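Project outcomes to date are best conveyed with an example. Our students and postdoctoral researchers have been running inverse folding experiments weekly, and each run begins with a structure described purely in tokens. The record below, which covers 231 residues, was selected by the lab manager from last quarter's runs and is presented without edits.
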């Protein structure tokens, strides 16, 4: 009985050592794509200053409706507009080291997604250059969800091909062969930052020039680890 138990323990230990000592090759494949953004985002900050709390809110509301009307006039859908960061606070100023109550300031941000074309940017700047409502603006650039899916699929393909290519070079140089893939681990840094550009505008009557509006490409990266058993 003792001999049988000893033999079984020896067999299992030998099998575990053999499995653990199986030769493996782990390779990291990488991929990077630079993509021109296909979507622009117009970011607008509106503010209204009034002595009365309610008047500040109403003034901001009137500005918002005026901006939305101008956006509709340009042919954009109001569904593409969204608002955030609404707040009302006391408008405190200081004079001769004394705090002076100067009413209330209401602020809000509006955002408009649009197809990223020079014509659309010019149309937006032309429209707002003649409007009555003053506000701060800048443009952000990103890629749309359909393009994002296409880019992600391509990154995975390229990273995988890179891993297999590297593995082929290694085993050829080492004089061995790849067997089956034993493990794959995928990782990415897909969420590229949104580029923000401030408009450098020349608002002369006939020539609406848009200077500096060549948004840089958005860079996306992916990595994939592939492990093979080798001869």
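After processing, the design step wrote out the following sequence:
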């Amino acid at each position: 009985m003792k001999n049988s138990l000893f033999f079984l323990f020896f067999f299992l230990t030998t099998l575990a050592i053999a499995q653990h000592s199986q030769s493996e090759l782990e390779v990291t494949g990488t991929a990077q794509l630079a993509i021109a953004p296909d979507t622009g985002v117009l970011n607008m900050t509106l503010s209204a200053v009034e002595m009365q709390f309610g008047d500040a809110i109403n003034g901001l509301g009137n500005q918002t409706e005026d901006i939305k009307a101008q956006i509709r006039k340009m042919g954009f859908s109001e569904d593409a507009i969204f608002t955030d960061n609404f707040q009302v606070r006391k408008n405190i100023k200081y004079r001769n080291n004394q705090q002076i109550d100067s009413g209330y300031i209401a602020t809000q941000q509006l955002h408009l997604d649009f197809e990223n074309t020079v014509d659309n940017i010019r149309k937006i700047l032309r429209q707002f250059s003649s409007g009555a409502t003053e506000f701060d603006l800048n443009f952000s650039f990103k890629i749309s969800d359909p393009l994002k899916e296409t880019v992600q699929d391509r990154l995975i393909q390229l990273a995988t091909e890179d891993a297999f290519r590297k593995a082929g070079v290694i085993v050829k140089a080492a004089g061995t062969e790849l067997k089956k893939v034993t493990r794959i681990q995928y990782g990415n840094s897909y969420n590229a930052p949104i580029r923000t550009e401030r408009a450098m505008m020349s608002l002369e009557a006939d020539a609406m020039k848009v200077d500096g509006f060549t948004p840089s490409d958005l860079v996306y990266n992916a990595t994939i680890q592939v492990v093979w058993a080798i001869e």
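DSSP finds four helices and ten strands in the chain. The radius of gyration is 30 Å. The training component of this project remains on track.
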